[in-house]
Design brief:
It is a single chain. This protein is of the alpha/beta class and about 250 residues long. It is about 45% helix and about 20% strand. It contains 11 helices and 11 strands. The chain has a 5-stranded parallel β-sheet. Strand 5 and strand 6 form a beta hairpin. The two termini are about 30 Å apart.
């Protein structure tokens, strides 16, 4: 039960102050023996724990999702295999899976979305990483505009979307090969750009290292870079930026 929900129940008389105090002092993580689920993370950081599914034994992944769902009313996993989804769905029928981004998620508590983050990718081969970023940001409560297949080999496609990019509080630029997309976007907008190099490309791209080095060495200002193929990390940081921007606007209107 979340802090706001507990306080609302105290306000309505459903919970006594003493009962609420006990809830606030419950264990801050669930010890499953093989995993310690950080059920208190959202209270500390504003973001609930997310599951990295790849490599987890079958008997663990289902239990982890069940416990997170029980604690928070939602659960979110990255890099999930279809087989893991099928196992989870047997026990949690409303589980959803996207085979492109490999995201496995369950929503039972509606999360309102605010602000705007634009997620761009250079080519359609970059969409799996871009979707991981976009769906992560949406899960954490951010409105997302998708701008896909706008690589620099046909830069007019990107330029036709300049207005969309300039309105966003943050832009995620996902690209493989030479990774030039982030630099171009950085020269078009005033808000932060998070560059995500992907492992897309031929031999000398070194599985994303070429794009990573290009992005780190960008001459455009306001660009930060996450690890190769780390769409989740970009979506998380973009949400932090979006929340700050939204708060700033709300504060100015008061």
């Amino acid at each position: 039960m979340q802090t706001k929900e507990i306080l609302e129940k105290v306000k309505s008389g459903e919970l006594s102050v003493e009962e609420a105090e006990k809830l606030f002092h419950l264990e801050t993580y669930k010890d499953l023996g093989y995993a310690k689920l950080d059920t208190n993370r959202e209270k500390r950081t504003g973001f609930p724990e997310v599951v990295y599914c790849a490599g987890k034994p079958d008997e663990y992944i289902v239990s982890i999702f069940e416990k997170l769902l029980e604690a928070d009313g939602r659960a979110f996993g990255t890099r999930a295999a279809k087989e893991q989804y099928e196992l989870v769905k047997e026990r949690i029928p409303d589980a959803e899976y996207d085979p492109v981004s490999r995201i496995l998620k369950v929503y039972r508590n509606d999360v309102g979305r605010t602000g705007c983050v634009a997620v761009c990718c250079a080519g359609t081969a970059d969409i799996p990483v871009a979707e991981e970023a976009a769906q992560t940001a949406e899960y954490f409560g951010t409105n997302v505009e998708r701008v896909y297949d706008v690589g620099v080999s046909g830069i007019h496609r990107l330029l036709s979307k300049t207005e969309v990019l300039q309105k966003a509080n943050c832009i995620i630029a996902v690209a493989g090969m030479e990774g030039a997309l982030a630099s171009v976007i950085g020269g078009l907008v005033s808000n932060p750009v998070i560059a995500v190099p992907t492992s897309v490309g031929y031999g000398a791209s070194f599985e994303g290292l070429s794009a990573l080095l290009t992005m780190i060495n960008s001459c455009a200002n306001g660009i930060s870079v996450v690890n190769i193929d780390n769409g989740y990390g970009a979506g998380y940081i973009a949400t932090q930026i979006n929340r700050l921007a939204t708060k700033s606007v709300e504060g100015a209107l008061e």
